[in-house]
Amino acid sequence: MRSAEDDAKTPEQSFWSNWSSWEEVDVQNSLGHDPLFVFPKDKLVEEGSNVTICYVSRSPQSNISCYLEGVQMQGEQLEPNVTVFNLNHVAFIRETGTNIYCKGDQGDSIKGIVLFVSKVLEEPKEFSCETQDLTTLNCTWDPGSDTGLLKQLSQSYTLFESFSGKKTLCKHKSWCSWEVAPESQEMYNFTLTAENYLRKRSVHLLFNLTHRVHPMAPFSVLFTDVSTTNATMTWKVHSTGNYYTLLCQVKLYGEGEVTQHNVSVEVDGEQLFSGLEPDTEYRAQVRCANANHFWKWSEWTHQNFTTAEAAPSEAPDVWRNVKSVQGHSVVTLFWKPLSKLQANGKILFYNIVIENLDRSSSSKFLSIPAPANGTELNLDQCSYQIHVTAHNSVGTSPASVIIVSGDPGNKEVEEERVKGTEDGFSLSWKPQPGNVTGYIVEWCDRPRGPLCDLQWKSVGPTTTSTVVSSDAFRPGVQYNFRIYGISTERVPYLLEKKTGYSQELAPSDNPQVVMSNLTSRSFTLSWKDYSIESQPSFIQGYHVYLKSKAGQCHSGSEKAVLSDDAVCCKYKIDNPKQKTFVVENLQPESFYEFLVTPYSSVGEGPHGAFTKVTTPDEYSPILIRVILPMVFCILLIMIICYLKSQWMKEKCYPDIPDPYKSSVLSLIKSKENPRLTIMNIKDCVPDSIEVLNKQEGTRKSLTETESSKPTYLYLLPTEESYSGPGPCICFENFTYNQAASDSASCGHVPVAPKAPPSQLALLTSPENLLKALEENYMNSLGEIPAGETSLNYVSQLASAMTGDKFSLPTNPPEPALCSEYKMQMAIPLGLASPPSSGSSSLSSFTLLDEGEHYH
Amino acid sequence: MSYPLAQLCLLPLLLSPLSPGAPISPAEPISQAYSLALYMQKNTSTLLQTYLQYQGSPFSDPGFSAPELQLSSLPPAVVSFKTWHALDDGERLSHAQGAFLALTQHLQLVGDDQRDLNPGSPMLLAQLGAARLRAQGLLGNMAAIMTALGLPIPPEEDTLGVVPFGASAFERKCRGYVVTREYGHWTDRAVRDLALLKAKYPG
């Protein structure tokens, strides 16, 4: 044990006494009854110190292990029940201390200590003092790490000034204020002392107060006399005594430029700025420092100002687009907004003067409000000179002059292809021999849009190439450039046309192909609607792919393997304008698939769906060509025959009358007159025809001579008896089918049933015949309308016997008009023999059934 | 967030035994005490884990357990089933009453210790404070039960006495461990005590 004197005034000097003599203590007795003790309790050490830990156990046999934060420590046994552990360079683990504990292996309680390891107190760094107003010193430093612990407060700082002997305890860890002595002490010698439970650290600082002046930032920064190009800046500085001069630094930022000025100031500062741009915002800042003993610059003080507007300095860049609509010129004027440097202020409006060059007296004036960048003019076919000026609040810009010629002068210019890059299109053109005041390159940023977004670029007369770039350029879009020369008369005329892609892309669409002329050996493909202008690259031609099962390619095609490993024949068409193709050398009745795709320098179109086609049979077209007309002809003939069947029948195979099948025959048989026989037709010759006129209600007196005297009709009509086309009279053989006769031209002259000529021949007189008829056909006659005419054949012989008034001609003339006589065909001799009565009767009934009913 | 809510819930429990004049039925205070004990039981292991986490090794080591550490001033909750079962209602309530009385004082002590040892751990301090309040609430409920059952209420005693102030930091860490551990054990035992009573005096 020893002692020392502690004097705050002399912290560096400590005078220790001599050590006391050792005393021996019996640990076992001094401790309590616990089985285990660990020492030292709650020890506070600095990081990196060497610490010795020991434990004392009551029973020496106990096997005790000790741990530091879970890691077993290797100790040194001093006595059977005392063990020490030497810890070197202990580390800081946490502010709440490091646990060290010991534990017996027989379920004894754990015993331990907490070792508080603090960080080492550091010397204050960057200790510095300065003043802003010469009344207060502000001292600052970097305190380093905090050494505060549970067992120890954070370090404290004390400021001691040796000349005045004053001392102050700083309230903050990193700075302290010091009141400057009123007696104008110039020199200061400070000692800053950091102190904690374990250690003290000090730093010293000696300085002259006037050399540590850090002025406050200037204030009241103002701008006066601000014109278009000049401005004056004034500011004030805080007073630091009358005998100090300040050096001030002024910086001016504007339009990307910085200018700097140094000004010596006592109270007020002033700086003139010149050569400024009109209508431009500038930012000025100022800071000051002690001019005699520079210590530190003050903080900056900022202020902005804007120069006054001036008239626009440049003429607007003007271009036009001329369209002819119904004999008028629609001129769209475009101009680019002036840059900030050119505008010299806010452009308010644009004035346009349109001067007719052909009639100098008439000119037109337009004023367009400012945000507009173009206008549309409707002009006639005269030439016009157009002046465009931009106006701001101060004045007018120079005029931009452009001439719109009455003659559009759209001379044909060959279009040339150019290759674009990502950076734009590099265009060059031939220099013009005449006087050219400049060139203009014109294009559309959006050529596919409804508004093409016309752009132009003006270059000087000596330039014959330029690079056109635009953010609007997209890959796969064709851009057209027109290069105009501007003559000295300011008339633009087209020089060259260029077209190209900023980047060519493979065609995205295949043409819509129409297939025609399909034969067994070939078919034709055409894609007339395919527009090569709207493709994403210059189309160089087409590939026609043809897939077939045979897999053989004929000349003119080559084998190609598609992406899906399908093999097909590829025909190449080199001309992009050829939009038809004939696929030949095909097999009949074969299945083919084809695809037409365009190709360009960057590839070909998508291999989309193939179109399927099957070639027809080789012979079927020929057969169809022959059979169809034949079938048609046959059908026509059949229809005609059907329609004219009756005529045909009469012409070609008329029915042959058979006397043996006459109904008269059965009539005769029913009378059972054995004497009556059928006269052979060849035995009699008809010579006259008797016509009977029937009167209404006189059927019963048919036999009376007065009322029913037979009238003889002459076969040759006379002038008296023939009175033009009247009721037709048909001479008919009764063996004809009555129904067929009715449906023919005689239909409107119904006749009563008559006896055939052969039967008439049996009757010696008309009276006899009428009697016979009357008896048998009374009923049927009642059905015949009254007043109609009955015809009977009268044989020539009978007629002669009855004493005819007229002599009948031997050769009867042809029947006139619709009167016709159905000729009887000569019956062969074999057929003239009378048939059996049964068959005759049956035949007779059949005929009668088809005709009028007699039963 | 849960602590203010828990304290609000405790308010009627604390007040209930104090309300005079009501007909005394043991079922209601038993039910209230049982509910509170169940609620406390849910939080005891969290309190212990939070406590150990802030004490450093060996306490914060996974699976730390030192059953041999005891406090003479705190009655142990561990009891054989036979002994526990042989106790009558009055004895059980009396034991629990005594234990929670000691626990409230010890939890106050541990809270003070940790304010020194772990000043930067407000969560631990809040949990210790909440546990102490709940222990006090349970004490009040038990007093109400004993009143309802007509049992004598043991007088409050100063279980801590003058012992603990000279303890070292490590001893205080150990003490806090024993208190938070025993708080859990006694809460478990109280749940069983009260469940038995609840079965005996159904509401």
Automatic annotation (TrEMBL), chain A:
Gene3D superfamilies in the cross-refs? Immunoglobulins
What are the record keywords, sorted?
A: Disulfide bond, Glycoprotein, Membrane, Receptor, Repeat, Signal, Transmembrane, Transmembrane helix
Cite the record's Low complexity compositional bias ranges. Answer: 832-844
Q: Which residues form a coiled coil?
A: none
Which family would the database say this protein is a member of?
Belongs to the type I cytokine receptor family. Type 2 subfamily.
Gene Ontology cellular component list: plasma membrane
Instruction: Give the superkingdom in one word.
Output: Eukaryota
TM region positions:
622-643
Among PROSITE patterns, the record links this protein to: FN3, HEMATOPO_REC_L_F2
This chain belongs to the protein called Oncostatin-M-specific receptor subunit beta isoform X4
Where does the record say this protein resides?
Answer: Membrane
The way this protein sits in the membrane is described as:
Single-pass type I membrane protein
Q: Where is this region: Disordered?
A: 832-855
InterPro entries, sorted: FN3_dom, FN3_sf, Hematopoietin_rcpt_Gp130_CS, Ig-like_fold, LIF-R-like_Ig-like, Type1_Cytokine_Rcpt_Type2
Q: Which organism is it from?
A: Neomonachus schauinslandi
Pfam families per UniProt? fn3, LIF-R_Ig-like, LIFR_D4
Annotated Fibronectin type-III domain ranges read 217-310, 315-410, 412-505, 507-618
Q: What is its main location?
A: membrane
The family database entries (SMART domains) matched by this protein are listed as: FN3 (SM00060)
UniProtKB/TrEMBL annotation, chain B:
- A single GO molecular function term of this UniProt record: cytokine activity
* Main localization, broad class: secreted
- Annotated signal peptide: 1-21
Entry keyword Iron-sulfur:
no
* Family (UniProt): Belongs to the IL-6 superfamily.
InterPro entries associated with the record? 4_helix_cytokine-like_core, PRF/CT
| Residue ranges crossing the lipid bilayer per the database entry | none
Q: Could you tell me where this protein is found in the cell?
A: Secreted
Among its keywords, does the record have Cytoplasm?
Answer: no
Question: What are the entry keywords?
Answer: Cytokine, Developmental protein, Glycoprotein, Secreted, Signal
Per the UniProt entry, what are the Gene Ontology biological process annotations, in alphabetical order? cell surface receptor signaling pathway
Write out the coiled-coil annotation as residue ranges: none
Choose one Gene Ontology CC annotation of this protein and give it.
Answer: extracellular space
Protein name as it appears in the record: Cardiotrophin-2
